[in-house]
Amino acid sequence: MSSAVVNGLAGAGGGIIAQIITYPLQTVNTRQQTERSTKKKKAGGGAASDASTLFQMLQLIQTEGWGGLYSGLKPSLIGTAASQGIYYYFYQLLKNKVEGVAADRGKKGLGDGTVGMFSWLVIAAVAGSINVLLTIPIWVLVTRMQTHTQAERKMIDSKRELLLKEISRSNSMDVSVLKDRLAKLDSEKPLPYGTLQAIREVYRESGISGFWKGLVPTLIMVCNPSIQFMIYETLAKRLRSKQSRKQLPKKNITAMEVFLLGAIAKLGATVVTYPLLVVKSRLQAKQEIGRNAMSRYTGTIDAIIKMIRYEGLHGFYKGMGTKIVQSVFAASVLFMVKEELVKFVVLLVARSRTLLLTRNKKG
């Protein structure tokens, strides 16, 4: 089994475990990112949004049950397994080739035989772009499922406001009819929303192209894992170099060291690229929230312009505190589990070969 396949499978396994553990935070964060607010509300709303993550989680459980925290989990797990598998497969494939070229150059006296920081950035960017093009439809569905109830409630509230205005302007004969409509509206609850409903809705709204909504910011977001892997590989290289300078026995980086390196790498990447993540989530979420122009986006540029106009720069950083906690912890778990799975497979293969050689000698 090639190292690329091993790393791909290990990445998929690590991603699934990390996703299950941190998914409730991801659901709350997606809702924070897609929540619209005007510039007037930003002074108090921004801090409250990040500070009240636990409160929002408890409120979500109260209104939608525990299932609300895991809306879209099934396609998300499929997406995570596919994304991490594809990403790590191509990342390792390209890494092996680049390391081979660097080693050959080192033998010829061209460089120190190791891969430089820029090369790591390019490798991660190429692997990330391939991953995005193949898996973005899954994440469009996940975002829809995470924000469906929120969007439906907004639409009901918008209808309620219009009815209340009509009641205040109507004569006594019409008021009773309008009040009946208002009572019926108040009794409405968001309908159950599954993967098939999400697929039908996306296709009905935008056709096949709808499944690639947010592609531009998502492709630009490739710089997130690129920066993450550049930081991780650079720190890992320095750690190994430090061990060799101290003349310590050559050994693999420990699970805890991998966990910490993964956390630092993801923290740096998330802070730099978070505004793009918010734009992506806005584009992939259901657009018909209310009747205001600020709620609907026709594309990436339109979303950026409207967010600046109606919400200010604060809008690009909604829920960043929640995202940092979720993504840093998820990345740390993923890195740690993935590396341990790779070690386990390598050890298993080595033992199998030893047993096979022993049997052949005896035979």
TrEMBL record:
InterPro entries: MCP_dom_sf, MCP_transmembrane, SLC25A32-like. GO terms for cellular component: membrane. The keyword Ion transport does not apply. GO terms for molecular function: transmembrane transporter activity. Its main location: membrane. Gene3D superfamilies: Mitochondrial carrier domain. It is a multi-pass membrane protein. It comes from the Eukaryota. The chain crosses the membrane at residues 115-140, 211-232, 253-277. It is found in: Membrane. Solcar repeats lie at residues 2-97, 115-238, 253-344. Keywords: Membrane, Repeat, Transmembrane, Transmembrane helix, Transport. Pfam families: Mito_carr. One of its GO terms (biological process) is transmembrane transport. Belongs to the mitochondrial carrier (TC 2.A.29) family. This is Peroxisomal membrane protein. The lineage of its organism: Eukaryota, Viridiplantae, Streptophyta, Embryophyta, Tracheophyta.
